[in-house]
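Course assignment 3, question 2. Fill in each field.
Student: A.L.
Task: Predict the tertiary structure for the chain below.
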Amino acid sequence: MRDDRGSFPVGSARFVNVSEKKMLVKLGEGKEARVVTIEPGESKIEPLSEGQMLMKVGYRASRAVDRTLYDNQFRLTKGYRANVFLYKAHRENSRVPVLLSMTQEKPPKLPTKRRKK
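Answer field:
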């Protein structure tokens, strides 16, 4: 998975689905809302607006039932990007089969070639 600024820029979110369920993401609200689906084992990078926006993340529990794991305002800090992971719950007695992890990060500064004098 590429992590450079060109493939995963500031102001975006990388949604990674390492669960066995289809990941469902709704970004924004009203007419401007976008719905993104991520199949098991896939990832997608989506642009986000800086500041607050409504984000809803869940999974397809069965053919006709979707479950929500996160439904709240999300604030992306200026100069940052977000990682959102959906992964299988490890405990057998977990009340949900998948869990969600969200983090923000500044892109790493990569070393550059020095010019010879």
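Instructor remarks: The mean pLDDT is 89. Strands lie at 12-18, 23-27, 34-38, 43-47, 51-62, 65-76, 81-88, 98-105.
Grade: pending
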